[in-house]
Amino acid sequence: MAYRNFAVVLLIFLLGACVSSSDMEPKARPHYTLGLSHLQAGNPTFALREFLKAVEDNPNDPQVHAGLARAYQSKNAFILSEQHYKKALALSDNDPKYQNNLGALYLSMERWDQAIEYFNEAAGNLLFMRSELALMGKGYAYYRKGDYPAALQAYRDAETIAPRLASLHFHVGETYAALGREKLAKASYEKAIFFAPAYAEARYQLAILLLKEQQIDAAKEQLSKIVEQSTLSDWGLRAADFLKTLK
Q: Is the model's pLDDT at 2 over the cut of 80?
């Protein structure tokens, strides 16, 4: 699938790692807390078991349904995830963080129009504290639809809220690259690296643009920096292979 796990990396985990569980049924609370811990540790199967127990003990709590939805999403059980995010929305009177998470789920499902709809709702809610993420998700959905002007507008709206968000500048860069506006793409990748010097993918894409400009040494410098910063990561291995071809 062409989708690069954008939703999981950037948008999803707003479901409540910092949300108080004090209003939960006492029996459900430890299962919910353990479920979150397993998700954060990258163990979705163990998380799923805990959230299923939490829902059984407290079926009317939106937090546990959102946690269960996240666990299902981690296991690519998207239809079940959708059902429980919608249940969380209904039980929470349309809490914007669940609207945002449902939008991110629709990115995973490549249902771009529905993703845009829910990101719009989350971004437009004055009570949502991370509206820049919803706007960035909206921009990415437009990017995947091929509507690059709409994507750039959504990213600009996000930038007014979070001008230092490195991933935002990266996605602006990839949109400019898709439009063939390589100087603007390069500037955006450089801005992403300025705010996050260890941003390997931004350095990699910048190196590609530098090679197109025949700036071989500058491209090598970017690739070498990736290898230095994240040797065993996927991007580190890619950069190392790329460097071999240049030598």
A: no
